[in-house]
Amino acid sequence: MTMTASTLLFRLLLALVVLAPVPFAAQRPWAWSLMGVTIGLLLLLWGALVLTGRARAAMPMSRLWFPAVPFLLVLCWAVLQTTGLVPAGWQHPLWGEAARALNAMNGSMVGSISLDPSMTVTAVLRLATYGGVFWLAVQLGRERARAREALVTLATAGIAYAVYGLAVRFGGWEYILWYPKWAYHGDVTATFVNRNAYGAYAGIGLLCCVALFVHGLRPTGTGDRRAFDLAEALLVRALPYLAGGLVIGTALLLSHSRGAFLATGVSLLVLIVALVKGRILRPGAAFPAVVALLVVGLSSVIISGDGTVDRLWRMNIDQEGRPDLMRQTLVAIGDAPWTGYGLGAFLPAFRLYRDSTLADTVVYDFAHNVHLELAMDLGLPGALVFYAAIIAVAAVCAAGLVRRRRDQIHPAVALAAMTLLGLHGLVDFSAQMPAIGATLALLLGIGYAQSWNTAEHGRSADW
């Protein structure tokens, strides 16, 4: 690939996304802030390239308005939640109580919908960062060579983090980087703190490896060369990704994350269906592919999955308090269904609702259900608008499987990754880790960009 300014920009974006898991999944304030600032700079550089004629927008706004408009509306609503520009009846009653307690009724204290405007501003910046990753991936990932590079890079990163996690696990080192582990001892977490978050990230890497493995099996020759090309495809283009998938699968099992294990299994089936719909995998080969995945998966479970299977066998989420946590979250949603409590303000809002059914020693800064938490934060209308943006991306990717005649692997992986994190989000908060959110945004952007026929708006001109 020729190294143009746009290609360099794209590779900087890739480097940022694949390195994001290193500092504890970029969950620390300095890490996600650095990510946000860097994405902002990359957006400015891309804009400068477009304005100076060194690149042009590969995807016109006419193809982007249906996910962009609801996404921007959500950002605007979240910002509005931090201000006093809403009717007094929309503001949380605690602001009035605080004003009376502080004798601040002279107007020096301004109420808002959000219980903690600073936390909401933080959440807005993080969500805007993911939007920036998506935008750059759409505009720069329109070139098929770059899209392929992104998928291979994410697969390679998934393998690298899995190798690191397994090395730490089998080496007997209870460390994350150079810090002693303070949680999840005996579980593979790689550079993540939470085993469930790492399990979800490993699942995304596994999806990339399986997609590249299946895609690599397709012979390119005909006639006498077909058998030779098939052997070359298997040994050179496909087997490395199968081996990498086995490494990632082993790390996923040794993370002992039940939710990530089950969500990855379902998303792999979604991937197979998408690859069939995209004509990458022939219908007649789909059943053998599923059988092969099951055989390989069961072999990995037998070898490395004792802990995960044991946790699945004696699954009892009641012991973890999640049903009570979700029940109280639903109560909170019912008290403010239209306005919410402020994007990212779950922690202070939930303090008002926790009761004796939840452990006193646990600080619930997440709802362990991203969908309920989003409804509680934004209100039901705001959450629905956000999901409208996600559904718009999914619809375009699904259509791309049918209308494209090549490169359908990218929308297929995007749909599978969306399924994985959506299902895992029913029981955990992996999608709220910045490293995972950025990775999903990149995959969705690439999948979206590669879901349109080239002839519909021409090739991007980068020079």
TrEMBL record:
Query: Span of the secretion signal?
Result: none
| Residue stretches spanning the membrane | 29-52, 64-80, 119-138, 150-178, 198-217, 238-254, 260-278, 285-305, 384-402, 409-427, 433-449
Q: What is this protein called?
A: O-antigen ligase family protein
A molecular function GO annotation: ligase activity
Q: How does it sit in the membrane?
A: Multi-pass membrane protein
Q: Which UniProt keywords apply?
A: Ligase, Membrane, Transmembrane, Transmembrane helix
Q: Report the superkingdom from the record.
A: Bacteria
Q: Tell me where it resides.
A: Membrane
Q: What is the lineage of its organism?
A: Bacteria, Pseudomonadati, Pseudomonadota, Alphaproteobacteria, Rhodospirillales
Domain O-antigen ligase-related per the UniProt entry, residue ranges: 246-387
Q: What's the chief localization of this chain?
A: membrane
Pfam families documented for this protein: Wzy_C
